[in-house]
């Protein structure tokens, strides 16, 4: 007998949330090692009986699969704004609704390293227990979902002539886009002044007066589009150009966001509420209280409706891979990539 759980969504139960996080973290770290209920209890700081009660509740509410151990793909039991503002990247990542489970694995590997950093595809794939090919296939999903930003980086080789490609830099992103408000002339003046100060502070940007004015206008337009000044400076100055810059305006404009690009709040800033932008739920547009974005970028109401992320709706009769929801042939359970990942040596 494990008693009955009080009614209500698992989101409202602190023990269910704790237990879900424990299971998600364990599933990421060692998917093949089945925890006993007593072990789960120990990790949650509760008894075996208590752990069993909440575990059954999570299974009943489809947050955990019938095996009692595997978190349902994409399910979450976090409340909006619930992640503490000292949350680790991994705590954030386990609450994010990833596009598919394979993406979720990759995302958690990145999160295990930090909010940002540098890591190569081989290392990510090995840590996630997938092939490099599978990772390369899923990486664009994370970029499209605005959950990760990758920055290719090259450095000048010792010979001073060739460039060597390093592992890509990455940054975890909240998926929440900040839309530009309708501008007014007061905002335009303020942006103009700020843009001038910003461009003047970029040491490598030395150009004739006409090119300076062009740069001020370029930066002002991005400030008006809600790009924070710090982010524009960061993009403009890193990495320091090596050597003489022949076309400073050209370099500046390739480094700054394009006119159609919107500012996405980085995950860390979103979790801590450290953003000057006013973030909104990515589904219904409601403002987040206190500027703190929930881990999946959704407000509570929207999350309740979307507890399970829905794979892009396609023709119902098109069979899909059970793991990553890519389209597969009629007699296939898994796509080639996922099939290769899961094949066990005989
Ligand atoms: Zn519970
Ligand atoms: Zn994916
Ligand atoms: Zn919403
Ligand atoms: Zn697949």
**How helix-rich are the residues, as a percent range?**
40-55%
Structural class category: alpha+beta
Instruction: Identify low-pLDDT runs.
Output: 308-317
Rounded to the nearest angstrom, the distance between the terminal CA atoms is 40 Å
Query: Could you tell me the number of beta strands?
Result: 4
Mean pLDDT reading: 79
Question: What proportion strand?
Answer: 5-15%
Order of helices and strands: HHHHHEHHEEHHHHEHHH
Largest sheet: 4 strands, antiparallel
Q: What characteristic shape results from the CA principal axes?
A: globular
Q: Which distinct ligands sit in these coordinates?
A: zinc ion
Oligomer: single chain
Radius of gyration: 23 Å
- Helical stretch count? 14
Features:
binds zinc ion, 9% strand, 346 residues, four-stranded antiparallel β-sheet, Arc Repressor Mutant, subunit A, alpha+beta
Task: Describe the model.
This protein is of the alpha+beta class. Among the domains are: 1-72, Arc Repressor Mutant, subunit A; 180-261, no CATH class; 311-346, no CATH class. The protein is 42% helix and 9% strand. The chain contains 14 helices and four strands. The protein has helices at 14-29, 37-44, 48-60, 89-95, 101-113, 121-128, 132-144, 185-201, 209-224, 229-237, 248-255, 267-272, 300-305, 336-342; strands spanning 116-118, 148-156, 163-178, 263-266. Strands 1, 2, 3 and 4 form a four-stranded antiparallel sheet that branches. A hairpin with a 6-residue loop joins β2 (148-156) and β3 (163-178). α1 (14-29) packs across α2 and α5 packs across α7. The protein starts with 13 loop residues before the first helix and ends with a helix. Mean pLDDT is 79; it is low at 308-317. It binds zinc ion (4 copies). One zinc ion (ZN) binds at residues 99-100, 102-103, 138, 141, 324.
């Amino acid at each position: 007998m494990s008693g009955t759980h009080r009614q209500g969504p698992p989101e409202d139960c602190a023990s269910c949330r704790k237990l879900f996080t424990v299971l998600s973290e364990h599933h990421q770290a060692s998917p093949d090692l089945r925890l006993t209920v007593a072990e789960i209890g120990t990790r949650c700081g509760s008894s075996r009986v208590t752990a069993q009660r909440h575990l059954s509740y999570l299974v009943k509410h489809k947050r955990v699969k019938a095996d009692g151990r595997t978190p349902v793909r994409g399910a979450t039991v976090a409340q909006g704004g619930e992640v503490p503002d000292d949350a680790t990247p991994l705590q954030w990542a386990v609450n994010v609704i990833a596009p598919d489970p394979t993406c979720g694995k990759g995302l958690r590997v990145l999160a295990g390293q930090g909010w940002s950093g540098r890591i190569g595809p081989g290392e990510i794939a090995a840590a996630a227990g997938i092939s490099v090919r599978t990772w390369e296939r899923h990486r664009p999903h994370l970029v499209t979902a605005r959950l990760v930003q990758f920055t290719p980086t090259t450095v000048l080789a010792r010979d001073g002539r060739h460039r060597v490609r390093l592992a890509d830099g990455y940054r975890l992103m909240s998926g929440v886009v900040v839309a530009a408000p309708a501008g007014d002339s007061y905002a335009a003046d303020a942006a103009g002044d700020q843009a001038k100060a910003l461009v003047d502070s970029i040491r490598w940007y030395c150009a004739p007066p006409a090119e300076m004015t062009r740069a001020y206008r370029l930066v002002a337009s991005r400030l008006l589009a809600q790009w924070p000044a710090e982010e524009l400076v960061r993009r403009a100055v890193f990495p320091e150009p090596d050597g003489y810059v022949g076309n400073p305006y050209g370099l500046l404009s390739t480094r700054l966001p394009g006119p159609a690009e919107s500012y996405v709040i980085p995950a860390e800033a979103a979790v801590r509420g450290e953003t000057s932008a006013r973030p909104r739920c990515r589904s219904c547009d409601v403002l987040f209280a206190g500027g703190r974005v929930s881990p999946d970028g959704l407000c509570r109401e929207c999350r309740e409706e979307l507890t399970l992320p829905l794979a892009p709706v396609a023709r119902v009769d098109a069979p899909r891979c059970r793991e990553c929801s890519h389209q597969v042939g009629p007699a296939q359970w898994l796509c080639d990539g996922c099939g290769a990942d899961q094949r066990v040596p005989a």
